[in-house]
Structure formats: C-alpha cells, structure tokens
C-alpha cells in the first residue's frame, strides 16, 4: 500500500491516530504526509514496542505481528503526537547537513594533498 492509498483509507476514519516505529528515516515521508492531512501520527522508538512484545511473550517477528504489536502499543500507551519541523526548518537542516559534508570533504582533500606532497 502506498502513502496516497493510506491517506485515502484513513481520511474516512473519524478520530484516527497512527502509530509507527522510527526506522532510520524511512517513515518520514509517510509521517509528514499524514501530519499535513491533519491525521494524528506518533513516531515512536522501537525499543518500548519490543519491550511490550517481551511482556506479552510475543517472540515471533513478522510484519503482521509487528503491526498488531505497534497497534497494541498505541492503544495501551497512547503516545503523544509527533511534533514536526516546519518546511523551512527541514530545508535549513538539509543545508546544514550539506555544509557539514562539504567541510568534511574539504578536510579530507587537504589531508590527501598534504599526504601526497610528503610521499
């Protein structure tokens, strides 16, 4: 199921709340899309969800089991909605990240050139 299909299905549900695990950024596009449509989204740390699995003696791990477990976590814990940065803040973060990458590249290049002169 794609994001647009998910949005379509959720838009007809009253008072829906979505809980998903933070997965290294893979969840970001979906979470932002849900947030922009006014759907409550909570992006949670996977560790407490796994802790709940242990408490429930849930050892097996499949996508279907994980989905039910995350839903149960959302029902029991009722995590707060995730607060999202504005588009300007996200763009600034992208630029800052790129600047840091360029500084690192320049430093590596200086070190490489310095090393080649001493060889």
From TrEMBL:
InterPro entries associated with the record: Transp_IS110-like_N, Transpos_IS110
GO molecular function: DNA binding; transposase activity
Pfam families reported for this sequence: DEDD_Tnp_IS110
Organism field: Phormidesmis priestleyi
GO biological process, one term: DNA transposition
Domain Transposase IS110-like N-terminal: residue ranges: 2-113
Name of this chain's protein: Transposase IS110-like N-terminal domain-containing protein
